[in-house]
Amino acid sequence: MHSILAGLTLLAALATAKSTPGPGDLNCPSGVHVIVARASQEAPGPGIMGQVANMVLERIPGSDMECLDYPALLDPYVPSQTAGVANLITLIQKYSEKCPRTKMILMGYSQGAHVTSDVLCGTSETGFPATKPQQSTVTDKIAAVVLMGDPSFTAGQPFNVGTSHGSGIFPRLNPDGCKCVDHKMMSICDAGDMFCEKGGDSLAVHMSYVINWGDAAVDFVLSMIHSY
């Protein structure tokens, strides 16, 4: 009898251990967690990039979205962007600890793209306080990154997409910092964009990426999720 009771107790313990959620699982999405950094001058929230984020949420059940809290000011730009970098570093590091099994998708438009790329690649642009790239313990939990109109767009990067062949108004001095995420990043810049292509003069091009590249961005995210 004692051996039977002991066996039943062991089975119950194993079943409980198997069904016990991991850290944060009860409050973590079963799909992906999309973090969006809005463009300069946009009201708090996802901004124009929210259209792309919402398409991803529709395609991946059980997903949710979070918007980066930062000033998003065009003037003064550097303090605003720097605050965004600090806030996003804290956000993704804490989320990777809270929900270690949930894949993160990072999206940024314009200044939000600059913030996102600096967080991942490290800040090396002239006039901005230097930061280091994120450790693999964090980047390994990021499945895909989509950037549109990044002022730190740097020519020759393997993740560059679009018709521009130049660099942005704040090009990276150490683009190798992006190597930890270059296989899962998509940075879009078209010729004439006044921010991601130095010498460009078109705000219309800068604001056109969701219309012209939104579907491609979603397809890219889905492909990264499936290969994660």
Highlighted features:
single chain; 228 residues; alpha/beta; Rossmann fold; six-stranded parallel β-sheet; 7 helices; disordered N terminus
Descriptive report:
The chain has 228 residues and is an alpha/beta fold. It has one domain (28-227): Alpha/Beta hydrolase fold, catalytic domain (Rossmann fold). Helix content is 39%, strand content 13%. A six-stranded parallel β-sheet has the order 2-1-3-4-6-5, with helices on both faces. Helix 2 (50-59) links the parallel strand 1 (32-37) and strand 2 (64-67). Helix 2 (50-59) packs parallel to helix 7 and helix 3 (77-98) crosses helix 4 (111-121). The longest helix has 22 residues, at 77-98.
Q: What is the count of β-strands?
A: 6
What would you call the shape? Answer: globular
Q: Tell me the strand percentage band.
A: 5-15%
Instruction: Give the structural class.
Output: alpha/beta
| Rg for CA atoms | 20 Å
Brief overview:
Helix content is 39%, strand content 13%. With 228 residues, the chain is an alpha/beta fold. It has a single domain (28-227), classed as Rossmann fold, CATH 3.40.50.1820.
Summarize the SSE layout with pairings:
Elements: H1 2-19, E1 32-37, H2 50-59, E2 64-67, H3 77-98, E3 103-109, H4 111-121, H5 136-139, E4 142-148, E5 160-161, E6 185-188, H6 203-206, H7 209-227
Helix pairs in contact: 2-7, 3-4
